[in-house]
Design brief:
The chain is mainly alpha-helical. It folds into four domains: 90 residues, no CATH class; 56 residues, no CATH class; 71 residues, no CATH class; 94 residues, no CATH class. Helices cover 46% and strands 11% of the residues. It is built from twelve helices and eleven strands. It has a three-stranded antiparallel sheet with strand order 1-3-2, with no helix packed on it. A two-stranded antiparallel sheet has the order 4-5. Strands 6-7 form a two-stranded antiparallel sheet. Helix 3 packs antiparallel against helix 4. The longest helix is centred in the middle third of the chain and has 36 residues. The chain starts with a helix and ends with a helix. The relative contact order is 0.05. It comes from Popillia japonica (Japanese beetle). This is Endonuclease/exonuclease/phosphatase domain-containing protein.
């Protein structure tokens, strides 16, 4: 029925080798010709090809509901097949009024049931009164009404995500233009194996093979350049790509805290902030080193000596890797103090990410503290 929506009121031209020697526009001599006649009546098309093959049979049918001119082509690229004479169709189609495509976007929108609220889903489905479907006499209208209610329930209980359509395992630098050239190359290769003509051989070896290789090299070079520039200029986008490839992020997908389970981003951040709120204290007189306007929380850190930091770092299994995870690289020309300062600064920024997104610590004082360079 979806195909019926596309062909209704549309300009159609259907060409092909139907291989029905007994076909006739008026009389159905067998089941296959009868099926074609039924489709022609359903789609409101007619068959106008009158050029028969060497056996006086009509195997190639042209079904259309628009006016066109049909000729028998004398000058063909390949040898003439006696069973299928070469045909030339001249047709004018008006596409100026078509503003929207009949097809949906190439992306896929799917429900994420692993994050669904099943208790609410079951209760809402159980509470739906489906008796309204009995009033419909048309099956298509009843199905539309059924899925409208079902999708509304799912949208309330199940999050939806948009997944871009993948390229069937092809490398990311293979563009649609290159795929089109590859298809042409495969077509010429098959035609040359079948007909052994110089026309396909020249296009295959001289044009298509070299052109495809050149396009792939250029596209791969541009792809590598974009990757390198994104690493240098936009590290956030680079990490986002890595996280999406690995299927993970810096924030866990589910957190259990205080007998509750959090799956939403804001709820996870709030639970994390509540758990670590014991290291913070409410601002009192003399607590903050620098007075600041407004109310908020203050971060209290006791004085830490270099010997204590050095002792804790020596206790780590992989000292350099742990510090590199914080974004600090060791430099032999620097002393111990700059390394520690850079490590502490990176650690506070990572903790500040949680603070800035948590409801308990979203205050003006902390914003000035963690956004300050």
């Amino acid at each position: 029925m979806c195909a019926y929506e596309f062909i209704t009121g549309a300009d159609l031209i259907i060409c092909g080798d139907f291989n029905i020697p007994t076909f006739s526009n008026s009389v159905a001599l067998d089941a296959r010709s009868g099926a074609v006649n039924d489709f022609m009546s359903f789609a409101n098309v007619t068959q106008k090809n009158t050029f028969k093959n060497a056996n006086n049979r009509l195997l190639d049918l042209i079904l259309s509901n628009v006016e066109y001119q049909l000729f028998l082509e004398d000058d063909s690229f390949v040898g003439v097949d006696e069973q299928h004479p070469p045909l030339l169709i001249n047709v004018v189609l008006n596409t100026a009024d078509r503003k929207h495509s009949n097809f949906e976007s190439c992306g896929l929108r799917d429900w994420t049931f692993r994050r669904a609220n099943f208790n609410l889903l079951y209760s809402m489905l159980a509470g739906v009164d489906w008796s309204f479907l009995e009033a419909y006499t048309d099956a298509e209208a009843a199905c539309d009404a059924f899925y409208k209610v079902l999708n509304s329930v799912l949208s309330e209980c199940v999050p939806a995500e948009y997944f871009p359509r993948r390229r069937c395992g092809r490398p990311p630098w293979i563009t649609p233009k290159i795929i089109r050239y590859i298809n042409f190359k495969n077509k010429y290769q098959k035609c040359y194996k079948k007909y052994h003509t110089d026309f396909y051989l020249i296009n295959l070896e001289v044009c298509m093979s070299s052109l495809v290789k050149k396009q792939i090299r250029q596209s791969h070079r541009v792809y590598l350049t974009n990757i390198e520039s994104s690493i240098n200029n936009n590290t956030k986008e680079c990490w986002s790509y890595i996280y999406s490839t690995r299927g993970s992020t810096r924030i866990p997908g589910i957190v259990h805290f205080g007998g509750e389970t959090a799956t939403e981003l804001q709820t996870i951040l709030n639970a994390f902030a509540n758990y670590f709120s014991v290291v913070y204290a409410r601002p009192t007189s003399g607590t903050c080193a620098t007075p600041s306007p407004g109310s908020g929380h203050c971060f209290n850190m006791p004085m830490i000596s270099e010997s204590e930091i050095l002792r804790y770092i020596k206790g780590l299994k992989d000292k350099e890797q742990v510090v590199r995870d914080l974004g600090v690289e060791f430099d032999g020309s620097l002393s111990f103090i700059p390394h520690i300062e850079a490590t502490v600064k990176s650690t506070s920024k990572m903790l500040g990410f949680v603070i800035r997104n948590g409801k308990e610590f979203n205050s003006e004082a902390l914003k000035r503290l963690y956004y300050r360079e």
